[in-house]
Write a structure and sequence with these properties.
Shape of chain B: globular
Radius of gyration of chain A: 18 Å
Oligomer: heterodimer
Number of strands of chain A: 10
Strand order of the largest sheet of chain B: 1-2
Number of helices of chain A: 11
Structural class of chain A: alpha/beta
Low-confidence stretches of chain A: 236-241
Strand content of chain B: under 5%
Helix content of chain A: 25-40%
Strand content of chain A: 25-35%
Number of helices of chain B: 15
Structural class of chain B: mainly alpha
Bound molecules: adenosine-5'-triphosphate, magnesium ion
């Protein structure tokens, strides 16, 4: 579904990503883990067209070059940004409906059904549908950001640290939702600091360090790799259960 | 004051208030979507009746060339965007043909002048504001002031310093409570109310909300599939439509000259500020207030009428900055 070859992202003279190869197959959950500043966000921004990138980006058999971010959304590549980027002064429901804007513009109607689907997934949003997005709690804002992305019926959903800054219980709730999305067949590319949760959800994973892929493979195998265990799962290999 | 004079001042005030309200609506619309305080709107408001006057005198107004030229530059800038350059070039040709039609059929001068002036807004957005997507409100304001001087200078070059009187669409008078109110004034007030209702309703549709979202959170809009550029162009187009219509409807009452735009824009801005630059109904109320204040102050202290109107700005700004609602910028 997505094939990336030799991806590079530079900010001025600073190199954030260099020579990254990446693949995502339909229905798969792929995770990108790595330390702060490894270039995870930059990789996602390159896929959405928000960061200038070089390299070969092939999505559904066609190159992504020259497509604006909003055109990529219309083609099904949708990002849940690490800063969420909600429309703070607008009500929750408008935020969700605006997520479906590319479909609305194509003339699709019946967005109400999708709205109900998102509300079933996140009942807390339904209770707050008239409330301005800025007044939601951090966890609710994350749910809204995910809900808004789902409203566009993404083919490839990119999630940038959905657990960032949330209490453990809320993180569990968010991962519960991701699990349900996976079960429903949504293709996910998940960037996470929380490597344990991410690897337990994902089918495959990539470990990014200083802008390069240093390890990749089956998520379960990655979770057993000594390097990953030591640095990202917070356990020494011998302590491993 | 005797009741007849009071009545006259009231109707005068409300009619000029309707003009300010229309300008205010266009300014609110542009600000809500792009964060641009569009000072040159006053010039475009004037261009419309001046263009009409050109047609009525049987010559091709230079605004036709300006509009077509800006559209062609836009087409060149967007040359890699699929069919867009061809559509834009076609639009430019259309403007040229409209210009010739305006000379040929003076009875259609008004609507044709409207269509000729219309592209100036979106084209100016594309040429001058779109290349600076991350601009601050202040940067945009400086740019807008610069454009105001450019369009004002062009206005002088195109139309000369004369005042033009234009024929009324509704030359008669309407008796309201025994007072003769010019029909043209009734049209202007009706247009202001219609534009207010129209814009209010438009911004309750998902398309309207998307335009607003583009200003509320630019990046958030882009990742939701909303094109921020398109939002700006559409906002400028709608605002120019409101402004040009206002100019055409008001000119038979107020005359038109190249240098009337600035004060008009400024008064519209005072009216828009009364609504915090966000509310359409309040912008119309603001327009009415400015018009009434001006009418009554011109009766009591005519030398100071502009000063009195602009003095209104100070307490309003103070009150607005205290209750600073939606004006704060995103990160
Ligand atoms: N807009 C920018 N301008 C300059 N440098 C940037 C910019 N954005 C990111 N960088 C740099 O690029 C590198 C990669 O950043 P990126 O945000 O992609 O990392 P990350 O893996 O997402 O980190 P984190 O886990 O902290 O979110 C960092 O060194 C960062 O300083
Ligand atoms: Mg990041």
């Amino acid at each position: 579904m997505l094939r990336v070859r030799g991806l590079a992202v530079r900010y001025g003279s600073a190199v954030a990503v260099e020579g990254v190869d990446l693949e995502v197959h339909p229905g798969e959950v792929v995770t990108l883990i790595g330390p702060n500043g490894a270039g995870k966000t930059s990789t996602l921004l390159a896929l959405t067209g928000l960061a200038r990138a070089s390299g070969e980006l092939c999505y559904l058999g066609r190159p992504l070059d020259g497509l604006e971010p909003e055109e990529r959304v219309a083609r099904g590549i949708v990002l849940v940004h690490e800063r969420r980027l909600l429309f703070g002064e607008m009500p929750v429901e408008d935020n969700l409906l605006l997520g479906a804007f590319s479909r609305y513009k194509r003339g699709e109607r019946g967005l109400g059904e999708d709205l109900e689907r998102v509300y079933r997934l996140f009942p807390r949003l339904a209770e707050r549908r008239r409330q301005p997005a800025a007044t939601l709690s951090g966890g609710e804002q994350q749910m809204l950001a995910i809900g808004r992305a789902l409203m566009s019926r993404p083919k490839l959903l990119l999630l940038d640290e959905p657990s960032l800054g949330l209490a453990p219980l809320v993180v569990q709730e968010i991962f519960g939702i991701l699990r349900r999305l996976k079960a429903a067949g949504t293709t996910l590319l998940l960037v996470e600091q929380n490597a344990k949760a991410a690897l337990s959800l994902a089918d495959r994973g990539y470990l990014l360090e200083a802008g390069r892929v240093v390890l990749s493979g089956d998520a379960a195998e990655l979770a057993r790799d000594p390097q990953v265990v030591e640095h990202y799962l917070g356990l020494h290999p011998e302590e491993r259960p | 004051m005797d009741p007849t004079i009071f009545g006259f001042l009231l109707s005068d005030g409300l009619i000029s208030g309707a003009l300010y309200a229309l300008v205010a609506l266009s300014l609110v619309l542009v600000f809500a979507v792009t964060r641009v305080i569009l000072i040159p709107m006053g010039e475009w408001v004037m261009y419309a009746p001046l263009t009409q006057a050109g047609f009525l005198e049987g010559r091709l107004p230079a605004t036709v060339g300006l509009s077509a030229l800006l559209l062609l530059v836009w087409a060149v800038l967007d040359r890699r965007r699929g069919r867009a350059p061809w559509l834009l070039a076609g639009w430019a040709v259309g403007v040229g043909l409209l210009g010739m039609a305006g000379v040929r059929w003076p009875s259609l001068a008004g609507p044709i002048a409207f269509l000729v002036v219309l592209p100036l807004g979106p084209a100016s957005f594309r040429l001058f504001f779109e290349p600076l997507p991350q601009g601050s409100v202040l940067l945009y304001l400086i740019l807008a002031v610069g454009l105001h001087f450019v369009y004002k200078g062009l206005g002088l070059a195109f139309f000369g310093p004369d005042q033009f009187r234009l024929p009324a669409l509704w030359p008669g008078e309407l008796g309201v409570l025994g007072l003769p109110v010019p029909g043209q004034g009734v049209l202007l007030v009706a247009a202001a109310l219609l534009a207010m209702a129209g814009l209010f309703l438009f911004f309750t549709t998902l398309y309207g909300k998307a335009l607003r979202a583009a200003a509320v959170n630019r990046l958030g809009a882009r990742i939701s599939g909303i094109s921020v550029r398109e939002a700006g162009r559409v906002a400028f187009l709608l605002a120019t439509a409101v402004g040009a219509a206002a100019g055409l409807l008001a000119a038979p009452l107020t005359n038109a000259s190249y240098d009337m735009g600035f004060l008009l824009g400024l008064k519209g801005f005072v009216a828009a500020i009364l609504g915090g630059l966000v509310s359409y109904p309040l912008a119309v109320v603001g327009g009415g207030l400015v018009g009434l204040l001006e009418a009554f102050s011109s009766f009591y202290a005519s030398a100071y009428k502009e000063a009195i109107v602009f003095t209104l700005l100070l307490p309003v700004l103070a009150w607005r900055s205290l209750s600073a609602l939606t004006l704060e910028e995103e990160e």
